[in-house]
Each structure stands twice: as C-alpha cells, then as structure tokens.
Design brief:
The complex is a heterodimer. Chain A has helices at 22-29, 85-93, 102-114, 121-127, 139-150, and strands spanning 2-7, 10-15, 48-51, 54-57, 70-72. Chain A is α+β, with helices and mostly antiparallel strands. Chain A is globular. The chains are: A alpha+beta, B alpha+beta. Chains A and B meet through helix 2, helix 3, helix 4 and helix 5 of A and helix 1 and helix 13 of B.
C-alpha cells in the first residue's frame, strides 16, 4: 500500500506492506535510522518520534496509520550544522555512552522542554520513564535535560 | 611544540567530550542493525524450541523453494569446522543431530526480505525427539545424571587452599548459603552485522562485537578460509557488557554470504537477542567464616557452583575469577575455596560485567554482615579490620604488589552524607500507586565492598597493539590512532584521544575505524582497554615523539609508530590453587539507602554511594558515568533482573517481561574516585568499568535486610521475599566436589579444539 506523509517538513511517499510499522517505514523505506529498534514492544522508547506533534513509539504504530500525517524525527533537530540545545546538553553532561537510546531520549526530552515550564528533577524523571538506557544509570541524562532547560 | 604554548585542550584528566558523541545525538551513528548494502539478503536463524532433544531429521525442501529464498543451511551444509567457542570449540555452528539448549540455532534462511525469510523459516520442518533436560546445576553433579556432553557435565573445578582451614580456631563461626539468578546484559542495541562476499573468495564482515581478532580466529576455520581472507570491521555497538564477546551473527551471516554470493545481513530482534548471547551465570554459594571475638577473620571455607549452561563460552575464566575472589578482599590466613562450573541444558552463560565477581561478592558481603551482627560489631568496622592493603596475601598466595587503597575507599564511602528522610506519597516505594500512607515505611542502610582483577589472568599473554601517526594537516599537525580495540560506549576512543593529545600536544586526533587489519587488541572487557590499548597508544605516542625529536620537528613526512603493550605476566593455578593469577586489582565500596513498604513488599532505592579505586582518572566525567551505569546494573540484579527459566526454556525474552531498571528505579549515585596510581600501568590507571556492578547488589540487599529484618539470601529480591510470602532459598548442604584431572577446564584435558588463549599465544609469539 502507498503511504504519503510529511516527514521532517518534506513530503515523502513509500510503498509498504500492511504489517509495516512506522519504525519500519522510517528505517527501511526512508533511510532515517535515528529511531532505533531495541524492543519491538513499546517498552524502551528508543524509536520515539513525533506523530502530529505527539511523541509515539514508532514500533507500535502501523505505517498505514500515518498516511497524511506529519512525522518529526530526531534527524530534524540539528539544523544548519548546529546541534539542538538538548543534543548539545547531552554531550556536555556526559549523557551519551553507547548512544543507542540517545535519539529516543533526545526526542522525549525535547518534547518535555517544548511544552513549557522549567521542569525539576522529578518531572524530568517522570517524563523519561518510558525510555530505557542500559549504560548511564540515568544520572547524567537527568543532568543533561536540566542543563538544556536552564540554557533555554 | 613550543613549551611556551598552552597545552592542548582535552588531554588526560579532563572531562573531554566524547569523540563519537555528535553522530550519536543526531541519530546518524551506524550500529550493526543499521547496516545496508545494495542487493543485500536478510537472514534469520531457526532455533530449537527444546532445551534438550535429538534431531531425527530436517526437511528444508519447501523452505528452499519458497518465494525470495536464496539459501537454507543446516549442519549438513557446513563447509569446514563444525564447532566454535571462545575458550573451547564445543559449540556447534548449527545443531548437529542434537540440541542442548532452547534457542540453539538449527538452520539458517537467507531471503530477499526479513518477512520472506520468516515465512520460509516456518516451512523448515525439524523432527525433534525431546529429551529430559538437565536444568539444575546441582543435579548435574549427581551420579547418573544425564550427560549434556559425551564427556560429562563438569566444565571446570578450581581448588584453592591456603593456610590450614581444617585446623583453624575461631571464637565465632557463621555458615550461610546464597543464590544469584541468571542476568541478561540487555544491551539496548541488539546483535547485528553485514557479511559481504569478496572477489578473492573471502568475506568482509561489518559487525557489532567486542573482540575483532578473536572473532576472526573463530570464523576462519568454520568458513574454511585462511584468516587473511576474513576481514572484520567494527559496526557501531549499542552496548555490550560482555554479551558481544562471543560470536553471534558472524559465522552464520558469513556462511550465507559465501554461499549466495550476496551481501547478507543478520540483525536480532529483542527475543532472538535473549537467545543469541550468553548470560551471567546463576550461582549457588556455601560460605563459612570463622573470626576472633574482636572481629579478625581467621578462616573461610567457600563452596561455589556456577551454571555454565550448554556450552563453555568463557565459563572457565569466569569460574577462576569467581573462585579467587570468593572469600572477599580480606586478610584471612586460612582459606579453602572449591569452585565448580557445570554444563546444563540451560542457555549458555559467559561474560557479563563483573565476570564472576558480582555473584561471590553478594555471598561474601552478605555473610560478613551476618558475622558483624553475631559479633555485635559495626559492619563497616568489621570490614576495616580485615581489609587487604598493599602487601597483603590473597587466598591464592598472591601478594598484593599494586596499589590497594581499600581502607581509604571504605572510609570515604562511609563518610558520604546520608540522604534526609523523604515524606509524602511521591516518595513512597511504588510511587503514587502505593495504597498505604507510609505507616509501614522503613528505611534501611547497607554497605558492601568488592574487588576485581583488571585485564586477563591465569597466564594469558595479554597484549594490545596500536599505531599512532602524526602528520601535517591543512590546519596544523594532527594525529591518527589505528587499533583493533572496540569502543562499545564506555568511551575508550575518547580516552585514547586524550592520551594522544597529552603526549603529542595536538588537539586534532582521529581514531580510525577498528578493523582486523589493525592487528590485535584483545577484547574490550575485563576493565582492560584503558590499560591495554591505552598502554599501546601511549608507547606509540612516545615513539612518535622520539622520532619527531630526531627529525628536529620536521613533519614533511608523516611519522607512524606501532607499539604493543603487555601487562606483567600472570601464572596458572598450581595444585593447591596458588599462584600470581591476576595482574592487578581494583576495589570498590558502595552504600545503599532504601525505603521499604514492609506491608506491600515494595522497595525503592533512595541513594547509592560508591567510592572506587581508579588508579588515575583519564576522564572524570566518563569515569563517573561508568560508576553510575555499573551501579544501575547491580541494582537490576538486586531487585528485578532475572532470566526466568522453566525446563530450560526462557519465559521472559522481552523487555516487557525481563525488567531493566528505568529512570524511576535508579536513584542518584553519589560517587568518588580514589586515585592511587597503579605501579607499572600507563599513567597508573586501573580499569573502572565493572567494579560498581560488583558491590551494588550486596549493598542494596544489605539495606533491604536492615529495613525488613528478613533473611534475604537470593537475588533478585522479589516483593514476596520482603513480606515473607516466599521463604529464603534453602540447601541440603554444599554441592559435592567433582573429580577432575586438574585445575584446568575439563575440555583442556580432552584436547577439545583450540581455545582463544592458545590462539592468542600463537599470535603473539
């Protein structure tokens, strides 16, 4: 089936199978590998993107459902060679190790900050509760989000 | 190179930014699962649903003719060596008439797409005759037990005897029993790789791995190719923690690429990942300490049993580690340790962060708490009274010749301020879902110390090579580092870059992609690469500097130097388990604060404090990150992580059912690093990657005991344990000591294939 949607501001279309997920569409058809496939069950958040402004786990969304929708991925954040402040804060705070969970964390953290208020640590932790990271123990991830929030 | 110029930024001792960080935050970094090639096929493995079975026949006819299928392989199609293995070649590339664990690969399918490969896989008929699986590690030692391998179930037994444990006199004896469960590394990035057939008949493989050169040594015989025709390059690795030390997709993808003449990709999903790599050994430990009334340890008697699962993997080395650490980092004049690892029909176990040390640390630290209570001594004081120091003698007779600031580590950890009590429903264990009102809330504090070796042991000729090139670039001099060492996230390449910056005084340093063409570097494991690859890079830099001096600073031609680093030699066990088994040691102390709802069995770790002996720190922020992440993994072992097995079948191969700590489970980790340089090591460094995992679980469980007063002798501790709905683990007495030919692994005496130790020796001599 043919899917047409807007991805990171560009009109894209792809022929997919009925069982293809949004994750499969992004990674295999559109070449956007930033969303990661780590659990296939919506448990780890590594495949997070915005779908019409809401963060979703793309492994749980059928590609067929995004026809006519707007998708925004981690690839949209760095512009003109400059990192998004959240991305820069992740590097500054040492929140990146293997990096497999990082795109998902960056998307969810950016979403949190785009919603307004300066979140305290408890709010940051609650917001990131759906993202697994196996390397960092999360402390520096919290630091990164707070740093990005302060520097806004 | 003027002495007046400011030093370059980002040298050693600074929290330099990760050199591979940029593509990781933008999503551009290419991991094994992201690899693609024109015309590539997708392959999957068909795995046994049984833990033990005979294979009567396999019919691949229908699958071979299914749409889009290019190749279906079974054991009958293997071109050369039929087994592989990290230490002993005991694991079939594809099951050959028998399967020994659930998830063992039986056949391979390569097709145009993953979906077509899956559809074809469903058409492969395998006629199994299920056998009664041997799934209990003690049952494996009983006379008449079913044999997992023809030669029996004992993989290795280590006997360590020091002083006279039989005759030792003590005022107080305590005797305890502990169990730890099977833990999964659960690296976020699953296994993946792409094999491309080459014009010379060889194969070019890009793969997520920890150990390029030993992957190749295992691959070449199975492909029937000389090593030079097996070229391996590193793909991005989404974490490893030991799980990428063993071969996963490497042989299978390469076999299919050579068979089909097409690039072949294999990438595991989460469920297959649980079946596709060895896990942390489940353990049972019987431990007996004798002490004087004033709290001096006089004797330790430890019996240790590890479940190695169906194949050897790195079990023999894990057992050696666990055995040598089993009495704890304490001065004890009389010690006997009997360690055994057995084969069972459970999934294979091998390397995982800590490599045998976490299991025994849970036992000896829990036992020490019990001893402290019996003696009426403060647990921290008991540890201080017995802590090893420089010059102490370990149960193996090895004298601690390196730095051993354990007392300082303990004192500093105990001095970290305790967190204030928290009130209000948000702070209750279980969060706002907690239906109590804090009336049953109890706070507990627990303390544990641990230790572990750095780098390889037991006479292994541990070596790493690196090449450093200094050249004139358009914007001034820059340097390149070429090594086969793997950075799978812990920051090795950043550390190597910092060393080069410091030594050569150039800021622009590039670590070139790791490939087998770069020689050998050993595995990124055993907390060894900052010492080993770091040592090689440091030596290469100094050679480059000397050459530059000779040339009076002329860089019109690049200067390139290759150097090899070896740590000091170690020894194998003698008959009494004596010898200089390890090259160097590092120490840790951790303190956990928990809140437990003692009615609901809910626990929340409020704070973890960790002080680690680091020798000398190259990147403080990176070191902290290792401690925080390592402690989180120990928290998982303490409270939630368990590969649950039923008749050898994994019941929870998913992140829905295998619980990995989330950001709400891991508390702030307060860490400090003690820097007492290790003599002989580059800059005095010690490895830092594993230690925090070692002592976190015993500290947390100690805190849970403090809060609940219950006997908790098994990890992970479940809510049922905290409210006594499940009784403590029981034992009918220590496991028997098996008869073995000697201290080496049994397959060694049978000449079972070349293990990597021998292969490494061949290579480095």
């Amino acid at each position: 089936m043919l899917i047409q949607c807007v991805v990171n501001g560009r009109e894209r279309s792809a022929e997919v199978e009925p069982w293809t997920s949004l994750l499969g569409l992004l990674r295999n058809e559109l070449g956007l590998i930033g969303a990661k496939d780590a659990c296939e069950q919506g448990e780890c958040g590594a495949c997070s993107v915005w779908l019409d402004g809401e963060v979703v786990c793309t492994c749980l969304v059928p590609a067929a459902q995004v026809d006519g929708c707007h998708v925004r991925t981690v690839e949209s954040l760095a512009a003109n060679g400059a990192l998004h402040p959240v991305q820069d804060a992740f590097l500054e705070a040492g929140a990146v190790q293997c990096g497999f969970c990082t795109p998902g964390l960056v998307v969810v953290a950016t979403d949190l900050l785009e919603r307004g208020d300066e979140p305290d640590e408890a709010v940051v932790r609650e917001a990131l509760a759906g993202n697994l990271c196996r390397c960092t123990g999360y402390g520096k991830v919290v630091d990164a989000v707070c740093l990005a929030s302060e520097e806004r | 190179m003027s002495a007046l110029r400011e030093r370059v930024r980002g040298g050693i001792g600074e929290s330099a930014r990760r050199v591979d960080g940029l593509p990781k935050v933008t999503g551009a970094y290419v991991y094994g699962s992201d690899l693609r090639a024109d015309g590539m096929l997708f392959a999957i493995a068909i795995r046994s649903p049984h833990a033990a079975a005979r294979i009567r026949w396999i019919d691949t006819e229908a699958a071979a003719h299914a749409p889009g299928v290019h190749s279906v392989l079974t054991a009958a199609d293997l071109p050369a060596a039929r087994t592989f293995g990290l230490e002993y070649s005991d694991q079939p590339v594809l099951a050959d008439g028998v399967v020994r664990y659930e998830g063992e690969p039986v056949a391979l399918v390569a097709a145009e797409t993953r979906e077509l490969a899956r559809e074809a896989a469903a058409l492969v008929e395998v006629d199994y005759e299920p056998l009664e699986p041997l799934t209990d590690m003690e049952a494996a030692l009983r006379p008449g037990a079913p044999r997992v391998h023809d030669f029996g179930n004992v993989l290795r037994h280590v006997h360590i005897e020091h002083g006279d444990p039989e005759a030792a006199k003590a005022d107080v004896w305590i005797e305890s029993y502990y169990e730890t469960a099977m833990q999964d590394q659960a690296a976020l990035g699953p296994e993946g790789g792409l094999a491309v057939p080459a014009a010379d008949g060889g194969v070019d493989l890009v793969v997520s791995t920890q150990w390029l050169d030993v992957d190749r040594q295992q691959l070449a015989p199975c492909l029937g190719l000389p090593e030079e025709k097996v070229r391996i390059a590193l793909a991005g690795v989404g974490g490893a923690f030991g799980s990428r030390e063993d071969v996963h997709v490497q042989i299978h993808a390469s076999l299919l690429a050579l068979r089909t003449g097409r690039p072949v990709k294999m990438a595991y999903g989460r469920e297959e990942s649980f079946h596709g790599h060895p896990h942390r050994h489940p353990s049972r430990t019987w431990i007996r300490y004798g002490a004087t009334a004033d709290g001096r340890l006089v004797a330790a008697d430890v019996r240790l049993l590890l479940d190695g699962g169906a194949y050897a993997s790195s079990s023999p080395a894990v057992l050696a580690n666990a055995s040598t650490f089993a009495a704890g980092p304490y001065e004890i004049p009389n010690v006997r340790i009997e360690g055994t690892v057995v084969y069972t029909n459970n999934p294979p176990c091998g390397a995982m962060r800590g490599f045998g040390a976490p299991q025994v640390c849970f036992a000896y630290e829990s036992a020490l708490d019990e001893l402290a209570a019996r003696l009426g001594l403060d647990p921290v004081e008991l540890r201080l009274r017995n802590a090893v120091a420089h010059g102490s003698i370990l149960p193996t007779g090895q004298v601690l010749e390196g730095s051993a600031p354990l007392r300082e580590v303990i004192e500093r950890c105990a001095a970290i301020p305790l967190p204030e009590p928290e009130t209000g429903p948000d702070a209750y264990p279980g969060g706002t879902g907690n239906v109590n009102h804090g009336e049953a809330l109890r706070r507990g504090v627990g303390f544990a110390v641990g230790f572990k070796n750095v780098a390889y042991s037991e006479g292994f000729d541990d070596a790493a090579q690196a090449t450093v090139t200094l050249l004139e670039g358009p914007e001034g001099p820059r340097a390149e580092v070429q090594t086969a060492a793997v950075d799978y996230g812990q920051g090795l390449y950043t550390v190597l870059t910092q060393i080069v910056r410091t030594e050569l005084d150039v800021e622009d340093v590039r670590v070139l992609p790791a490939t087998t063409a770069a020689g050998f570097a050993g595995s990124t494991s055993a907390s060894r690469q900052t010492t080993m690859a770091g040592g090689a890079v440091l030596a290469a830099c100094r050679a480059v500097s000397a050459e530059l001096w000779e040339r009076e600073g002329d860089l019109s031609e690049p200067i390139s130097c290759t150097r090899e680093y070896h740590h000091r030699p170690t020894e194998t066990f003698d008959e009494q388990g004596q010898g200089d088994i390890h090259a160097s040691f590092a120490f840790v102390a951790e303190r956990a604060v928990v809140d437990v709802d003692t009615e609901l069995g809910l626990a929340r770790v409020v704070q973890l404090a960790a002080v680690q002996d680091a020798g000398r720190v190259i990147n403080p922020q990176g070191a902290e990150g290792q401690i925080e992440g390592g402690a989180a993994m120990g928290l998982g072992l303490a409270l939630m992580e368990e590969v649950q097995l039923e008749d050898g079948v994994i019941r929870n191969p998913s992140f829905t059912d295998y619980l990995v700590p989330t950001i709400l489970d891991v508390p702030p980790v307060v860490s400090e690093l003690v820097e007492e340089p290790e003599p002989g090591a580059p800059y005095g460094v010690k490895g830092i990657g594993e230690l925090a995992t070692v002592a976190a679980a015993p500290a947390i469980v100690s805190a849970l005991r403090d809060a609940t007063g219950r006997t908790l002798n098994r990890v992970p501790v479940a809510p049922d344990d905290l409210v006594a709905l499940r009784p403590p683990a029981t034992t009918e007495g220590p496991a028997p000591i098996p008869e073995v030919p000697g201290q080496q692994a049994v397959p060694e005496y049978l000449g079972l294939g070349l293990g990597q130790q021998e292969l490494m020796k061949e290579r480095t001599t």
